[in-house]
Amino acid sequence: MKSAAALAPIILAVTACATTASPPPAEQARPTPDAGQCDAGGLDDLVGQPANAELGAKARDRAGARTIRWIQPGMAVTMDYRSDRLNIHLDGQNMVERFRCG
């Protein structure tokens, strides 16, 4: 018969695996109602306007986003998706071209 000391590493390894299981992907992807979910629909009237802090705040509030990101032509941006972020795409004259969430 094996001693308890010899079985301890095996028991710890099995217990650790059982307690660190993550929820299924569908559970992780479900947003909470107050997560600052962005909706860029309905911002078309702001397209063509010059980029400034006031426009950014207005667009963020109307989209229900928590944050904004200004994207200029040729600018390198991360590809991470954030459901609470409003991306404001600008043209070469610093005018708003389009809005996208993420």
Automatic annotation (TrEMBL):
Q: Which Pfam families match?
A: Inhibitor_I78 (PF11720)
Presence of keyword Ion transport: no
In this chain, the stretch annotated as Disordered covers 21-41
Its signal peptide is 1-18
The alphabetized UniProt keywords are: Signal
The record's section on InterPro entries has: Prot_inh_I78 (IPR021719)
Keyword Transcription belongs to the record: no
Taxonomy, superkingdom: Bacteria
Under PANTHER family, the record lists: PEPTIDASE INHIBITOR I78 FAMILY PROTEIN
What protein name is recorded for this chain? I78 family peptidase inhibitor
Per the UniProt record, the source organism is Stakelama saccharophila
